[in-house]
Amino acid sequence: MRRHWLAKGLALGALLSLSACVRLIPEGQAPRTEIPTPPVAPAIESAALAGVIHGPSVGALELTPGDAGTALASFLDSCPKLLAREDASGLTHGADWKPACDAALGWPASNASDFFVTFFETARVGDGTAFATGYFEPEIAGCRMRQPGCEQPVYAMPPELVRGWWDETPEAERTGREQLGRHDAAGKFIPYYERAEIEDGALAGRGLEIAWAADPIEFFFLQIQGSGRLRTPEGEVIRIGYAGQNGREYVGIGGVMRERGLLGDGPGQYAGSMQGIMRYLRERPDEGRELMRLNKSWIFFQELRGDGPLGALGVPVRRASSAAADPRFVPLGAPVWLQTDRAEANGLWIAQDTGGAIKGANRFDTFWGSGPEARIIAGGMSARGQALLLLPKGTVARLDSGQ
Q1: 207 — alpha (psi -120 to 50), left (phi > 0) or beta?
Q2: Distance (Å, whole) CA 137 – CA 60
Q3: Is the domain of 97 the same as that of 183?
Q4: Residue ranges making up the domain that contains 209
Q5: What is the CB neighbour count within 10 angstroms for residue 348?
Q6: Is the separation of the CB atoms in 366 and 349 below 8 Å?
């Protein structure tokens, strides 16, 4: 995730969301942090409906060699998906990307800027006003096998977690995608176990553990991020990625804490930061446990191999190169140019991920890798400015002609 993907620390916005809203994370998609909300825009369902116009030439963007080189590598990774998948944005067809993807195979990284100049044009979706946050891949202490000081289970997807309609769901509400749940001993289809039940042992002893985390609080935030790394005492790094979710409600604890008056600068309050929230959870373990259990959502993981966590496109996401976007407005795999009030977010990104909070035109979540620096950058990222899509040459003219 340049990302999630990001906390994914968690991104600061995830913790400090002013809304204590309850939401469900769509299945098949990693959870994203709750973030500062951009101005509300009219509901538009795709980039094609939002309106697309020509932007400046790619050459006018003044791509740096390093930025273009990393973007070219990520773009090449995305090509098999770009060529094969249906573009939900309505902007492109798979065949549109073939000339660029064919050329990318042998294009030298040292001259990557010319690649984008040669094969792409820029397009502005709507008014182009962009909002970008950040996510990262957290690294926490963990173990392959349970041992003292390493007792928080990291569960794989349980086989009985399936889709259907809960027996209690009225017929009139049985629309759209079916709910996640399980069958009880009597055969009734009911909601799946929530966080408190899982923490109390509902899945214990079934062999679903793929690893163990040392710190339940750090693991809680890793779950919100949706992926991360466990570093064992022996120095092994176990990369884990999102495999599924229990279908229960997600509650942002930062919003709850603010509503309860726990965050702020006053006496007895905790700093409105990730550090302040974690300090509260550690200094008040009983209250902190109750607070975390308000978030009924539980994330299941799988062990990942490769050089980075996998984004929604199914390819590794990389630091300062990959971003999450709404596939209704950005073809997943497409390059995106950002020019914002945060220098770190500026430049060329490849849309390789999605997120539950990443919705609408020109909304992005930039991925920053792992480690302390990534946590700081992602946690403080809240950038506003302009966005341009880089599309195969001729795309805008074709859209204008109605083809």
Answers
A1: left
A2: 33
A3: no
A4: 141-220+232-303
A5: 28
A6: yes
In the chain, helix, strand, coil percent, each to 5?
30, 25, 45
Whether residues 35 and 73 share a domain: the answer is yes
Given CA atoms 54, 57, 61, 63 in this order, what sign does their dihedral have? Answer: positive
- Residue 198's H or E segment, with its range, is helix 195-199
- Dihedral through CA 114, CA 77, CA 357, CA 210, nearest 10? -150
Residue spans of alpha helices (H) in 51-194: 65-84, 98-104, 112-119
Summarised one tens digit per residue, pLDDT across range 351-378 is 999 987 788 999 999 999 988 899 889 8
**122 and 148 together in one domain:** no
Domain identity same for 374 and 260: no
Domain at 118, CATH number: 2.40.40.10
Q: Could you tell me which residues are beta bridge partners of residue 265?
A: none
Model pTM score: 0.73
- The model's pLDDT over 216-265, given as tens digits with 9 standing for 90+, comes to 999 999 998 788 999 999 999 999 988 999 999 999 898 899 999 999 88
Do both 75 and 194 map to the same domain?
A: no
| Residue 223 structure tokens | 């779950």
Residue 12 lies in a domain: no
Cα separation, 280 vs 151, whole angstroms = 22
- Residue 381 amino acid letter: M
Decide: 197 and 298 in contact? Cβ < 8 Å.
no
* Residue that terminates a domain, selected from 251, 277, 303: 303
- 367-402: b (≥16 Cβ within 10 Å) or e: bbbbeeebbbbbbbbbbebebbbbbbeebbeebeee
239 shares a domain with 93: no
* Cα–Cα dist 263/258, whole Å: 5
